[in-house]
Amino acid sequence: EVQLVESGGGLVQPGGSLRLSCAASGFTFSNYWMHWVRQAPGKGLVWVSRINSDGSRTGYADFVKGRFTISRDNAKDTLYLQMTSLRAEDTAVYYCVTEKNDYDVLTGVRSYYFDYWGQGTLVTVSS
Amino acid sequence: SSELTQDPAVSVALGQTVRITCQGDSLRNYYASWYQQKPRQAPVLVFYGKNNRPSGIPDRFSGSSSQNTASLTITGAQAEDEADYYCNSRDSSRNHPHWVFGGGTKVTVI
């Protein structure tokens, strides 16, 4: 059974730092690209960051670039999100998700999708 | 603001059909994926690609796409389908790949 278990959330002051972890099990973690997605209270889903399977390539949403760093330890089957210079607007539940993609040979169009989600960890930025 | 546009809310009578739409330029290059989220739960993938339903998702969920619009249809809506639904796609419009979600559609089954 695939499991993604996030941890590390909590209350932090504006300008502070926090590191989130996501422990993966039930699948070959090192084969998967991974993402972080967040959801502010009462709001919609927002993509935050992604990392390729060996950790050599990363990408970020513009609003976290330079402040957040995604990384992974394939030996420990764990994904991380180091968050610095936190702002009130970073308050959200942060989800760890797996990425897959599907290619339709008839149309030549690809889809990328998030097939497994953790339960999320809440980050609250407040003084 | 979302780069994928969804209607904020829609209602459907029990057993009837409802279509949720998602519009955006990224959908001209990639198929959408769709997620169902019930209160206080993590999202669940319900449809992706041209015509793919994950294992365990009822066949009353179907999808389609044309040009810059993707749709998720629930045929014969059940009470348990009441939830928020989000579309998502990869977007290569900037100098780096990123992913975008629609703002979500709240489906109410009446």
Question: What would you say this structure looks like, in words?
Answer:
The complex is a heterodimer of chains A (about 130) and B (about 110). Chain A has about 130 residues and is mainly β. Chain A is about 0% helix and about 55% strand. Chain A contains no helices and 11 strands. Chain A has strands spanning about 5, 10, 20-25, 35-40, 45-50, 60, 70-75, 80-85, 90-105, 110-115, 120-125. In chain A, strands 2, 4, 5, 6, 9, 10 and 11 form a 7-stranded mixed beta sheet that branches. In chain A, strands 1-3-8-7 form a 4-stranded antiparallel beta sheet, with no helix packed on it. With about 110 residues, chain B is mostly beta strands. Chain B has no helices and 11 strands. Chain B has strands at about 5, 10, 20-25, 30, 35, 45-50, 60-65, 70-75, 85-90, 100, 105-110. The termini of chain B are far apart. The mean pLDDT of chain B is about 95. The chains are: A mainly beta (about 130), B mainly beta (about 110). Chains A and B meet through strand 5, strand 9 and strand 10 of A and strand 4, strand 5, strand 6, strand 9 and strand 10 of B.
Descriptors for this entry?
heterodimer; A: 127 residues; 7-stranded mixed beta sheet; 4-stranded antiparallel beta sheet; globular; B: 110 residues; mainly beta; 6-stranded mixed beta sheet; 11 strands
In this structure, how is the largest beta sheet of chain A organized?
7 strands, mixed
Query: What's the order of the H and E elements of chain A?
Result: EEEEEEEEEEE
The total of beta strands of chain B comes to: 11
Number of strands of chain A: 11
Structural class of chain B: mainly beta
Give the helix proportion of chain A (percent range): under 10%
Radius of gyration of chain B: 13 Å
Look at the structure and give the mean pLDDT of chain B: 95
Taken in chain order, the helices and strands of chain B follow as EEEEEEEEEEE
Compute the number of helices of chain A: 0
Determine the fraction of residues in helical runs of chain B and give it as a percent range. under 10%
Oligomer: heterodimer
Q: Per DSSP, what share of the residues of chain B sits in E-state strands of 2 or more residues?
A: over 45%
Gyration radius of chain A, rounded: 15 Å
The biggest beta sheet of chain B, please? 6 strands, mixed
The chain pair with the largest interface is: A-B, 25 and 31 residues
Secondary structure class of chain A reads mainly beta
The N- to C-terminal Cα distance of chain B equals 30 Å
